[in-house]
Design goal:
The protein is α/β, with parallel strands linked by helices. It is 35% helix and 21% strand. It has two domains: 171 residues, Peroxisomal Thiolase, Chain A, domain 1 (3-Layer(aba) Sandwich); 190 residues, Thiolase/Chalcone synthase (Peroxisomal Thiolase, Chain A, domain 1). It contains 13 helices and 13 strands. A five-stranded mixed beta sheet has the order 1-7-6-4-5, sandwiched between helices. Strand 12 and strand 13 form a beta hairpin. The chain is globular and about 55 Å long.
Length: 378
Amino acid sequence: MRRFSTVRRVTPRYAQIVGWGKGLPVRAMHNREFEALVDTSDEWIRSRTGIVERRIVGPNESTVTLATAAARQALAAADLDPRRIDLIIVATCTPDTLMPAAAPLVQQAIGATRAGAIDVNAACAGFAYALVMANGMIAAGTHHNILVIGADTLSRWVDWTDRSVCVLFGDGAGAVVLQATDTPTGLFGAQLRADGAGAGLLCVPGGGTRMPPTAETIAAGAHFIHMDGPAVFKFAIQILTESTRDVLAQAGLEVGDIDLFVPHQANKRIIDSAMRAVGIPEDKVFINLDRYGNTSAASIPIALCEAIESGRMRPGDNVLMCGFGAGLTWGTALFQWGVPTDVPASDQWRLAGQSIVTSHHDRALAIARRAVGSRGSR
């Protein structure tokens, strides 16, 4: 019988972001439109959430169509043939159908004929979960190119007469391509957690096997989003603060080493409160919820994409991401945008600036080695 040695000598592998993209519905819904639906106003929504407008899917749009658009953009940025993708992970709690998952439909749409495809449901924390999972698979040596997508269409589950919920959510998708490299970069620290005791604070009670759709459940509004706003607000501030500190300690880095913080885009007051507690200055926080609202698992990757496009996120930067949502779940990841040895020959990388890639290369390696050294000393 052939036996495999338990001792393996392998070169460490890391995961770097080489492509990014987003997919958004055509329709933008301004706060003023809610004034005809519920007892609210543009000023009320802005002052309590920071949201001005959000994108809402139309009849021919869905989670899969948005995820597909984001995936195609990310592949174009990476200058990567979809047939070279080994795995597609779609983080979503709103797939087009309960079965099959969204990921195989995206796989077929983009022509990733050699890729596996799975969904991950951690609600608004889903992208962080998917990113950490993909990083682990690349580090293990089983995968080389992984497409990670966060996509949700929560407007399909919104009760448009519930002021406390309907003004908060929007639809969208964001994607990144992770690629294996032997350069120390990528994920320096992460925390994935859940507290099922709070599951009832944010949920859609109906539609699953416990409460399948019936005339009675539909009449009772069981298929809409139900949320205890004050409790979720308190939970979010606590998690953003504590998890950020934990991950920085895990990576052996300090607040000053963060170049950009990209939190889940749920509420401006939540973000402001947590950042004051942690000590991250406002100019290092990326916020775009004023234009998109809470897009659940899509919020962080959409923000990442726009941070790159606007020049706020540059190769070599340490980017801290934190998502929190139903479950209750939360996921925090400290990720460095590593510099590819061969910069993809795409317009997206050209616009990001190859001079920036060069100028930040030495700094990126120095910070990476410091973080890796800190992990090895524990």
